[in-house]
Amino acid sequence: MNERQHHGIGMTSARTRERMVQRLGDQGIRNLRVMDAMLQVPRHLFVEEAFAQRAYEDVALPIAFKQTISQPYIVARMTELLLAGLPENGGKVLEIGTGCGYQTAVLAYLLPQVYSIERIEGLANRARQRLRELRVNNIKLRYGDGYLGWPGAAPFDGIMITAAAPQLPPALVHQLADGGVIVLPEGQRRQVLKVYKKHGDALREASLEEVSFVPLVPGLPRR
Predict the structure, then answer these.
(1) Catalytic pick from 70, 116, 207, 212?
(2) What would the pLDDT profile of 94-113 be if each residue is shown by its tens digit?
(3) Topology annotation, domain 14-211
(4) What single string gives the DSSP state of each residue in the chain?
(5) pLDDT per position as a tens digit, 146-196
(6) Is 70 a catalytic residue?
(7) For the chain, domain boundaries
């Protein structure tokens, strides 16, 4: 999905969404394309019905399977950082941790190809259904172990990890294209938002603000 194909989807709560985007600007988000994506993608459709009235507040909210949807600022911030490291045409990106699919939809609004992996099968199925209902057609989503990435679709120009890893998973570094960028929260008790840029066999690292995410868990849950 991109702004030319899907402009104006789900404009319920448009005024509330406009206030959210204004707040993002006050918080330091500068990329106008990111701001437009946050305006267009209907966050209230990705949260549990009981929390729909709070969908545009700047808070993380619980979703199914004891997971959370990140606060709008973090979604916008990580998206902005990812876009800054991508080629001009956007390229192909991999998201680790589909969750409810909101971040996936924001990426799909901005980029031509989005691959996303979710280790909780029920969440993956719900996200797939929601994205299908919103006619988001430029994504490929699968149930799997995010630590392993998606080797068959590599290399990726960008990778976003939406759960906190103790350290950068080696498989994902291997699947990143030369010149590519990885954005993730890194750490355990103390988590820091980090950006890695790949140059040949070397990674250049930048540490940004402290954050709080659910942990990135290897493997798949027992059935």
Answers:
(1) 70
(2) 999 999 999 999 999 999 99
(3) Rossmann fold (3.40.50)
(4) --TTTSTTTT-TTHHHHHHHHHHHHHTT---HHHHHHHHHS-GGGTS-GGGGGGTTSSS-EE-GGG-EEPPHHHHHHHHHHHHHTS-TT--EEEEE--TTSHHHHHHHHH-SEEEEEESSHHHHHHHHHHHHHTT--SEEEEES-GGG--GGG--EEEEEE-SBBSS--HHHHHTEEEEEEEEEEEESSSEEEEEEEEETTEEEEEEEEEE--PBP--S----
(5) 999 999 999 999 999 999 999 999 999 999 999 999 999 999 999 999 999
(6) yes
(7) 14-211
